[in-house]
Design goal:
The protein is built from 13 helices and 13 strands. The protein has 342 residues and is α/β, with parallel strands linked by helices. The relative contact order is 0.14.
Length: 342
């Protein structure tokens, strides 16, 4: 129904406006009792789907990636579509508008999206107020730095977000891999990244009950840089990696050049193979030393199975959820149940 009736209409309009429209619609429908209907249609519940990863029990391995519910507006309502976990953010200490519009582009011929949102969010403290209500699903907190914060002061921004969110999320994701904040990816270099993660781990150690800290990496890293990531995880003893964020590559795209030349991070189907390659590389070269959450170009159940077989413990959707609709979550969970080795 979504792909053949709803999506063609939604894709006639500006994608950012559609996103806000969908959020308003979901909030309204949930308030008038559609929550149970969504669960009945899309949720797959089975003990065999449960996963224990970095000390947390996930009711299934399919999550919603950061960037969809940046401001923690609809995490409970979105969980009704069958997700095992929801990642909010990326959040920054201070509110920021992000980059100038238009900043979100559909590449329909490639089943892809280019975004240069620029960490647009209402700030971590606004999200904290929303997160104080009861959670029906595990929540990840994706944290970043404000655009105006120089890299040499970035750690303080991450620590502010970490402390503010600590009592309200189940795990943390350190985002240093978005291409849409100037200079951010420089924090992926070995020395600054090790320092940042060590300081977050020190802050975590001071808490009475510690939370998992994950690192989200770019798909554009070289093999040598990925080996550095493995070493950094070992040295800092963070709990895992999310592979991967959006790419700056435009290789092999079929869409009109007016779209493909837009600046920003590319997500969706063109990222399917590369993100799986990164997962497999990290898993094999580290000898499965840490859990990996696989994300990037999951548009069908087999895409998710490929990532799980490559070494991912969990997977996340974003662009595939937009193109394929909520039925994709159910299809992946059913495919996992059919594959006893996963």
């Amino acid at each position: 129904m979504y792909k053949f009736l709803l999506r063609p209409v939604l894709f006639l309009f500006d994608p950012e406006k559609v996103h806000h429209f969908i959020f308003s619609g979901l909030k309204f429908l949930s308030k008038i009792g559609f929550s149970g209907l969504f669960k009945a249609i899309y949720m797959v519940e089975d003990k065999k789907l449960e996963r224990e990863v970095f000390g947390l029990k996930f009711k299934n391995p399919v999550g919603l990636a950061a960037g969809f519910d940046k401001n923690a507006l609809l995490y409970n309502e979105l969980s009704d579509f069958g997700f095992g976990f929801i990642e909010i953010g990326t959040l920054t200490p201070k509110p920021q508008d992000g980059n100038p519009k238009k900043r979100l582009f559909r590449l329909k011929a490639d089943k892809a999206i280019i975004n240069r949102m620029g960490f647009n969010n209402e700030g971590v403290f606004a999200a904290v107020e929303r997160l104080k209500k009861e959670h029906r699903v595990l929540i990840g907190g994706n944290i970043g730095k404000n655009k105006v914060t120089p890299n040499e002061e970035a750690t303080q921004d991450y620590l502010i977000c970490f402390d503010a969110l600590f009592d309200h999320v189940d795990y943390f994701v350190v985002n240093v891999s978005s291409p849409n904040t100037p200079g951010l990816r420089e924090l992926q270099d070995k020395e600054p990244l090790t320092s940042l993660l060590n300081q977050l781990k020190n802050a975590n150690a001071k808490k009475e009950c510690q939370k998992p800290i994950l690192l989200k990496i770019a798909p554009d890293l070289t093999d040598d840089q990925l080996l550095d990531i493995i070493d950094i995880v070992k040295v800092t003893q963070i709990e895992g990696v999310i592979a991967t964020n959006t790419t700056i590559s435009r290789e092999g795209l079929q869409s009109d050049q007016d779209l493909t030349k837009e600046m920003g991070g590319l997500s969706g189907k063109p990222l399917t193979n590369r993100s799986t390659e990164v997962i497999k590389f990290l898993s094999e070269k580290s000898n499965k030393a840490f859990p990996i959450i696989g994300v990037g170009g999951i548009h069908c159940a087999q895409d998710a199975i490929d990532k799980l077989e490559a070494g991912a413990a969990l997977v996340q959707l974003w662009t595939g959820f937009i193109y394929e609709g909520p039925a994709l979550v159910k299809k992946i969970n059913k495919a996992v149940l059919k594959n006893p080795s996963l």
